[in-house]
Amino acid sequence: MKFAIISAGEGSRLSQEGVVLPKPLVQLNGVPMIDRLVHIFAQNGAEQVVIIVNNEVALTKEHVLELKKTAEVPLEVVIKTTPSSMHSFYELSPYLKDDKFCLTTVDTIFREDEFAAFIQAFKNSDKDGMMAVTDYVDDEKPLYISTDESLGITGFHDEATPACRYISGGIYCLTPKAIVTLENCMKKGMSRMRNFQRQLVADGLQLKAYPFSKILDVDHASDIIKAEAFLNHED
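^ that's the sequence the OP posted. Answer follows.
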């Protein structure tokens, strides 16, 4: 199974708030976020990790190319500036067409034991995809997920509905069938990951929600403190 990291954003909100390092290199408990993900993926049996980074951020490019030399698992690095996370996913997709894979953004923070259980559940699943979800909402624009009684995903929504028990955690486990949907989204000129996810449902792919206790994003300087407290079980 392969793993992929979208790390092509500029992290402009962090820099505006005085954070000097680019987002992928922001440290949580002394470890850059991108290094943390690569290590966790290696611990969960990754055959390869594919990473996309922004061409405009030299420090991140240098770091990732050095990481490639010493990482616990083979790394493939794509260096390209893209207009959205969905476009970044498209740049990674040629490496993900032959097997199940897990995709996440670089600033998605979760507990390792929950992630390991999630990956194992997906490996054992016959579904087309499994999405990490949480009922903890600390996002400026959450993507709400409606499900049936067995946690089958029935829709993705910008606003909550009575059927929405969870929001998206930004961790996507998918099969190569999802790449076909992605390619069609690109041909139609679509953008944003949430629109791709809606198209997965429209295309009839069988998706299941997998609940995590909490998933955080690091978008603001204050989120760094929250993330470290969460990982240290201090929250």
